[in-house]
Write a structure and sequence with these properties.
- By secondary structure, this protein is of the alpha/beta class.
- The chain has 9 helices and 7 strands, in the order H-H-H-E-H-E-H-E-E-H-E-H-H-E-H-E.
- It has helices at about 5-10, 10-15, 25-35, 50-60, 70-75, 110-120, 135-150, 170-180, 195-215, and strands at about 40-45, 60-65, 80-85, 95-105, 125-135, 185-190, 230-235.
- The protein has a 7-stranded mixed β-sheet with strand order 3-2-1-4-5-7-6, sandwiched between helices.
- The longest helix is centred in the C-terminal third of the chain and has 21 residues, at about 195-215.
Length: about 240
Amino acid sequence: MSRLDDDRFSDPQTWNQQAWGNVESNLVFLAQTGLLAAKPKILEIGCGKGALLSLLRRQNYHALGCDHALEVLRSAAEPLPVVAADGDSLPFGNGSFDLVLSFDVFEHIPDTDGHLREVCRVLRPGGSYAFQTPNILTNVPFEILRTSIRFGVRNIMWSFRPPQHCALHSFWKLRRRLERSGFETEFYSVPVVNEFFRSKVRRYAGKAGAVALRLVNPDRLPLPIRTNFFVTARRPS
């Protein structure tokens, strides 16, 4: 796998992290949904090294994980019930789960309609897909900046080719796609400005980014122009 194929492999600092993404905000989102209260059977798509999966299992949830990269799964700090699989081809039976999760995954899947069909298939009737994905309106400028810094201006389009952020959506496009796929959809207001978010801004945008963040707090913006969407998509009973 080349350094540009999977961003998790391309940066030693990132690779050494146990968790990728804004875990604190993702946990706030799950708490807001209330979906964990019924002790559901859970599948996490794109579980990576298993940080969230491990947390769920320590809390006695029946949780399984999958990730497309076998090397990532093998690097988990502890043995976990995981399989190597893509998000649009899930090796599980129909109606196997009450809750499917994914965080920073949806935007990497070229065939998002196929992905949603697979999620719907493995969910029981009445089950939910809870996920987080970046907003195309805010993520495109950030990815151009990030990629040009790390890989040079000639490679800026890499960020928008599979398996990178090839399936970014706007608020309205994402809602329409979910509804066309038969899901009952709800968007959540989840704060993302925490130490993880600030450090990411400082890393790629320096002092100017930190100043901009003080002037414009993304958490106070209307949902359609937030940096990230937190969504539950319920399969009708």
